[in-house]
């Protein structure tokens, strides 16, 4: 990633996305390939008066644990990790995978056991974030593995990442503030609707959203960002939905996913690839079979699929939904160790109705809403 791009990403991450203040404990988590960005974020945290704490993890250790660890070792959670989650003011996670298929051959049962054990950590992160006690950010440093997944050269992928984050703008922070205002307008309008009905290729889905809060994602927790999301009423989701793109989760890929919901719960599953893994994740706990998030992707600088949810769920003209845990700030109460996003392309042949009125067609809200 060019030096100028690293500097701009670090600047936005520290000064805008996480708003680091004097005295903040800032935990920075990354793999070794993102060292240039880690150093620049570290420097800027110091400039802001914060206290940076860096964790660099090796991908191979997770693979080794899942292959060789006992059940007890898979379920072990470090007390130091618990203390750190309670103490941190800011958490910045840099995705920089050397091999996105490191866990491809892992036993799904052992993956599920490992993930269930860490559910309390995830719950606490969500709780502290919703309460305004923790500011966090997930972003990405371009690697050959991520570029290969996207079907791009590393140079082209780095440019894609740069533009997706509006870092090519003269004033990236100003650009994000302007986009955030537009997203706020959409979120406020959606907050007046009680029921949504989505029609698209393979999808005929109804869900109630009345009484729930729509959140405009302005670049504060994901970067790049650009979506509006809510937590649907847990028992309200009815009908069928088909994902448009392959979905990656914990190093595994599922393709052509079709789900049927009744009473808010997944009652039938189809997938052209990865069905066994999908069903193992749906059996993770009671909440894994319910929809914890429903969202519209609205970042028009992201136009193509890359096999990375951080970008794909923000593609302008798409919707996505997450199986599993709700975000507390939406009013959603579904609880699960799982939060897995699946994306549906609405840019051709789609209609969305709000309380029976056509409000969205072929990837765009009507009447100049956005």
Give a description of the structure.
The chain has 370 residues and is α+β, with helices and mostly antiparallel strands. The protein has two domains: 3-164, 3-Layer(aba) Sandwich (Thermophilic metalloprotease-like), CATH 3.40.1830; 173-365, no CATH class. Helices cover 33% and strands 26% of the residues. It contains twelve helices and 19 strands. The strands form four sheets. It has an eight-stranded antiparallel β-sheet with strand order 13-12-9-6-5-17-18-19, with helices on one face. Strand 18 (357-361) and strand 19 (364-365) form a beta hairpin. Helix 1 (3-17) crosses helix 2 and helix 5 packs parallel to helix 7. The radius of gyration is 20 Å and the shape is globular. The mean pLDDT is 96.
Alpha-carbon distance between the two ends: 32 Å
- Describe the sheet with the most strands: 8 strands, antiparallel
Mean pLDDT: 96
Shape, principal axes of CA atoms: globular
Structural class: alpha+beta
How many structurally independent domains? 2
Low-confidence stretches: none
| Rg over CA atoms | 20 Å
Question: What would you say about this model in short?
Answer:
By secondary structure, this protein is α+β, with helices and mostly antiparallel strands.
């Amino acid at each position: 990633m060019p030096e100028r791009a690293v500097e701009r990403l670090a600047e936005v991450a520290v000064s805008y996305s996480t708003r680091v203040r004097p005295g903040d404990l800032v935990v920075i988590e990354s793999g070794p390939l993102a060292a240039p960005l880690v150093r620049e974020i570290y420097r800027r945290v110091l400039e802001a008066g914060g206290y940076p704490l860096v964790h660099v993890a090796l991908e191979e250790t997770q693979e080794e644990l899942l292959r060789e660890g006992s059940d007890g070792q898979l379920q072990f959670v470090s007390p130091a990790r618990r203390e750190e989650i309670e103490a941190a003011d800011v958490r910045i996670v840099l995705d920089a995978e050397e091999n996105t298929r490191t866990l491809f051959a892992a036993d799904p049962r052992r993956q599920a056991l490992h993930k269930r054990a860490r559910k309390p950590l995830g719950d606490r992160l969500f709780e502290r974030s919703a309460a305004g006690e923790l500011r966090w950010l997930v972003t990405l440093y371009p690697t050959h593995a991520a570029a290969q997944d996207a079907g791009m050269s590393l140079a082209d992928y780095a440019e894609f990442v740069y533009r997706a984050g509006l870092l090519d703008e003269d004033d990236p922070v100003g650009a994000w503030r302007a986009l955030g205002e537009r997203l706020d307008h959409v979120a406020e309008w959606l907050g007046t609707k009680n029921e949504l009905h989505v029609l698209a290729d393979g999808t005929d889905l109804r869900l109630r959203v009345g009484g729930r809060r729509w959140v405009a994602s302005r670049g504060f927790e994901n970067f790049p960002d650009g979506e509006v999301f809510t937590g649907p009423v847990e028992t309200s989701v009815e009908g069928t939905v088909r994902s448009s793109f392959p979905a990656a989760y914990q190093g595994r890929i599922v393709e052509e996913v079709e789900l049927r919901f009744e009473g808010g719960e997944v009652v039938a599953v189809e997938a052209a690839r990865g069905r066994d893994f999908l069903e193992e994740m749906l059996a993770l706990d009671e909440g894994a079979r319910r929809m914890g998030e429903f969202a519209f992707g609205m970042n028009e600088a992201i136009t193509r699929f890359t096999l990375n949810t951080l970008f794909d769920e923000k593609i302008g003209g798409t919707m996505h939904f997450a199986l599993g845990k709700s975000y507390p700030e939406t009013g959603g109460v579904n609880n699960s160790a799982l939060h897995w996003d699946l994306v549906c392309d609405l840019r051709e042949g789609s209609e969305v109705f709000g309380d029976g009125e056509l409000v969205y067609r072929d990837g765009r809200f009507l009447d100049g809403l956005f």
